[in-house]
Amino acid sequence: MSEQGETGEAITILLVEDDAPTCWRLQDALVKAGYEVRSAGTLAEARTALTEAPPRVLLTDLRLPDGHGVELIREVRQRFPDTEIMVISALGDEESVISAITVGATGYLLKDAFPTDIATTVRDLVAGHSPISASIARFIVRRTQGAAQSSAGAAPGPTLNTAKLTPREIDILWGIAKGFSYAEIASHLGLSRQTVPGHIKNIYRKLEVHTRSEAVFEAVQQGLIKL
Amino acid sequence: MSEIAAKAPTRPRRRLIVSRLVPYLLLQALIVIATILGLRLLQPSDPEDFALSQFSLREDGVTGAVTLPHFTSSRYSLADPPLYTGAFTFRSADAGAGWSVYLPRFSNAVEVAVNGVVVLDSRRDANANRPDRNTPQIAVIPASLLRDGSNAITVRLFVWGPLKGFLDTVYVGPDAALRPSYETRTLLFVTLQVAFSAWQSILAVILAIMWLMRRREPVYGVLAVAMVLGVIQAFIPPPVPPAAVSRLAAVLLASAPTESALIVAFGVLFFGWRWPRYGMLLFAPGLIVFVVGLIAGPPLPRILFLVLGIPTVGICLFLMACVTATAVVRRQDAASFTIGCAVTIVLTCWVHDMLSVFEIVTNERIFVSRLSYSAMLVAIGAGLTWRFARALNQVDSFAGQLVTRVREAEERLKASFAREEERARAAALANERTRLMRDLHDGLGGQLVSIVALSERGHEGATITDAARAALKDLRLVIDSMDDIGGDLMLALGSWRERATAQLRPHDIALDWRVATPQGLPLHPELRPWHVIQIVRILDEAVTNAVKHAQARNIAVTIETLDGAHGPYGVISVTDDGCGFARAENGEAAGASQTARGLRNMRSRAARCGAILDLGSDASGTRVRLQLPQVFPDSDAAGG
What we know:
By secondary structure, chain A is an alpha/beta fold.
């Protein structure tokens, strides 16, 4: 069995992970599922790999021996907008995942996930379904509340701009945070089950801060910086 | 015994009084001498070259030669006044400028005629009619009236009792020679008096305003009234007997006793004593003069003033001297010294005037009491203003000190608040660390130990995998519980659902998630991370039991809010279709003990959160019902 994209070619994955056993484990699971996997142990190796051909999917750890995964995600996001990006995380904690989301990652993959789950997640990702975990959804909605309650005093954790989210998107995030399935959320909100992944994709896009100048622009728009 | 005790402190006290009073009295004696000398020096010198003192006086039909200065008898009628007739020699040769007639002192009024023509009538000048002011008069003699050689001069002296009439030496000569003397006297006895009175009126206004703003201090009011009376007395036009006299004006002119009584009242209040009730008697003479004067009309006020008023003024001055002397002994401060000296000066002047009135001392009948009294009042007013300004400065510095103190207190408070905050933060951190350590120890520690044990025994990977996976799961739970969920347990359960689903997927067990009430569970603002960990661990244990020991195929989690007697409460139920732990207990010993320990753990965790754990198990499945408390307990009381 081989996973293929629309063009029929094998789907290429660039796996950036410095811990060799973890890397093997993930690579095994993905190769078994039929993906074409290239792996890199450092930021430099990953950059070299990127010069050959852009991968369809980038899976990267954040703490790398020669730099931070966030830099790689930002670069890939700018150079190859079609590449789907996911963070590999040991614990799925908000601190690392949210900082990756703001530079263009969509969701995370746990390092100890079952092989079948790893394959399913990547398949969904390629199909355009960006997964979002309950804890990440919770972090985002808590941040929207915090922003509404007090403008002064930044909440702890990574900075996150939730100003662009629509009330509907926030409702969806609430549903996910409370453990409801997509079907349950759709029926509660009077949506079609199929539109929920699209909303989630939009949420990811809105949380992304594309450039430094855009970040400044956002800050000015929200009155955080006075010119 | 008691006598000795009583005497002991009096002796040093008496010594103290003597040691303070004697220098003061000596100082006052010096002041008296200085005042007398000053009065002598102040005596204006008159141009004796042109003095005219030999007159013939026709009084009451009797004619006789007199030498000026001369006193006539007191009288109340203006008809047929004493007539002084004299002569002076005029030489037209040396009369470069005009000649004048100059009268330095007279009482009460004069009409001067040269060669039968009236050149001066002092009754037209209001100031000149006041016996208490020593107003001089001068008049230019028209050149056409003067004849070469001897000229006749007549002076009619109008007297209105009870004082005796007085006529000082008359001077006739060139105007240039007489006028400087006249100007000196005018400056001393008229202009200075007016200046003092004007000053006094300003002080009266200031003191009145001060009293209006500070009613608690009547001392200002008393002094203001005294000053107002003084000003009225100084500026009111004195009546000339033939004119229709206002009785009010007449009695106001006789206000000196009231004024002096007010000054005594001021002194008593100023030095911080209570005004004695019998002190009101001091106002009686002034009131009598007022009332009698208003009813009877002149000349009674004048007579009463002389008989009652003047002695009252003297008594008041004496009282005031006593008051200030006592104050000096007690307080030894600048204010009492200054006022005491001023009183001594006024008293000396009063005695001087009395001696003059009774003709014991012949000093051309110059009255200085009023002048010195005005000066004293001005000094007192200035002193009060000075004291007021100093009080304002004190208030300023007090306010400054207060501001500094408040700032210091604020700083201290801020510092202690910061310390307190720091301590609270440290305590919270320590609590959190303790909790975290316990949580990690409860889960992760045991699991890591079992991983070590398994790998040492060389067991196959699967078991180690399970242990490591459980350790990771627990670590995630601990991290997850650190997040602030704002009292919404549903947010924690959402994450747990994901983890549980992932855990069950390899076992092909479906997790049926039912939220019976739309809202899920009630909000618990008091919910703390350690509550969340206990609840999630109970649920984990229930799911783990279902998978490991009961071989369940389906697990259902039901979340609902029920209404109790004291409000809504949440219930979380985990049901499975396994074989139940009751049967499992009969099976292998290891599994049974593990299950028993698991159940015990679940119960103790529920108790720590104030939740009620209900377990039901039979062959068709197990049902774990966790009834949440309405309010989660604040402290981990049951925790060990």
